[in-house]
Amino acid sequence: MRQGADRHALAERKDDLYETPPEATRALLRVQPLPRRIWEPCAGRGAIVRELAAAGHEVVAFDLVPHHGADPGIVAPVDFLLERQAPEGCDCIVTNPPYKLADAFIRHGLTLVPTVIALLRLMAIEGAGRSDLIDRHLVRVWAGIERLPAMHREGWTGNRLKGAGAPFAWFVFSAKPRPAGSPIELMRMSWREP
Asked: What pTM was computed for the model?
């Protein structure tokens, strides 16, 4: 039975550009306190940046690829994994990282800022290879009550789905390790406007 966890081949996914639906960022803004200045190191064309800026946040936006049609102000090419310090005044990252590098992005982000918030498939809670992140640094998961609108890969010409095939969540990581034995907060939220 298919559970919606299929992935396309890496050669097809290329730069892993899956624009974040605006509902995802709006939902995060409703439930998670965020600082005024935020770093988005995987900005793509600006989907997350647009929503954060509309809510009054100042966003420093980078991307590895200078995507055609990207919003003004996104600095590219910038390889986040080679960055050695956060932009001035940024102590929080909010991003939808390329899934092939999500663990590396989160680990690296936690060396640069106190808080990394990443949009990931809910199944990211699993996996022995990311135990250091989940067991020590994950403090909160904002899981969707319903499915997030589908994110289609850049250049996708196949059928367009209304809802994602897999459940997604915002994962909140802290650079300061969670005390041993302390629980991860699992919170539920709606992707839909209230």
From this structure: 0.86
The 58-61 sheet, strands edge to edge: 58-61, 37-40, 92-95, 115-121, 168-174, 138-144, 185-189
CA 71, CA 43: separation in Å to the nearest integer? Answer: 9
Q: What angle do CA 110, 150, 48 make, to 5 degrees?
A: 40
Q: Give residue for tokens 């499915």.
A: 147
Tokens of 18: 């899956």
To the nearest 10°, report the CA torsion of 79, 105, 50, 29. -160
120-141 pLDDT per residue, tens: 999 999 989 999 999 999 999 9
Q: Helix or strand or coil: residue 20?
A: coil
